[in-house]
Amino acid sequence: MNDRITGFVLKQSDYREADVILSVLTKEYGKLSFVAQGVRKMTSKNAGSIMPYTKTEILFDYNETKTFFRLKNARCKEYYRSMHEDIIASSAAAVAAELIDVLTLQATNDMSNNHEYAFLDIVFSKLDEGYD
């Protein structure tokens, strides 16, 4: 039962020796948490796809009773290269992502965060174009 979603990586925290915990905002399910196993290893295929402040397509198994999932595969849909290279734009993206992370709750059955998702999409796109 593989589910494929697109979401914004809000933050990434180190976990154990080679794993990370991701906070991802999705349009369909709201905010979800993932454990990405082995992504801090040099041979990881998913490491470049789960960087903070990127739009990423994630493959995982969704279960309504859980709020923490195991990431199977990830593919970067939008990297926002100019935003990541500019320190001011990158800082603004960090503030926007932290704001959304704090203001949104973990996903429940009847919850989606369409407004927050659209907000991040616009902010990241504008910052990538050079609007500070």
Structure characteristics:
alpha+beta; 132 residues; 6-stranded mixed beta sheet; 6 strands; 29% helix; single chain; OB fold (Dihydrolipoamide Acetyltransferase, E2P)
How is the secondary structure organized here?
Elements: E1 3-15, E2 19-26, E3 30-36, E4 55-60, E5 68-70, E6 73-78, H1 81-85, H2 87-103, H3 114-129
Biggest sheet features? 6 strands, mixed
Number of strands: 6
Radius of gyration equals 14 Å
**Average pLDDT taken over every residue:** 89
CATH top level label:
Mainly Beta
Instruction: Write the CATH fold name.
Output: OB fold (Dihydrolipoamide Acetyltransferase, E2P)
Which class of secondary structure composition applies to the elements?
Answer: alpha+beta
Report the helical percentage: 25-40%
- Number of structurally distinct domains: 1
Cα shape: globular
N-to-C CA distance: 42 Å
Brief summary:
The protein is of the alpha+beta class and 132 residues long. Helix content is 29%, strand content 33%.
Word description of this protein:
The chain has a six-stranded mixed beta sheet with strand order 5-3-2-1-4-6. Helices cover 29% and strands 33% of the residues. The chain is α+β, with helices and mostly antiparallel strands. The mean pLDDT is 89. 30% of the residues are buried. The N and C termini lie far apart (42 Å). It has a single domain, classed as OB fold (Dihydrolipoamide Acetyltransferase, E2P), CATH 2.40.50. The protein has helices at residues 81-85, 87-103, 114-129, and strands at residues 3-15, 19-26, 30-36, 55-60, 68-70, 73-78. The chain has three helices and six strands.
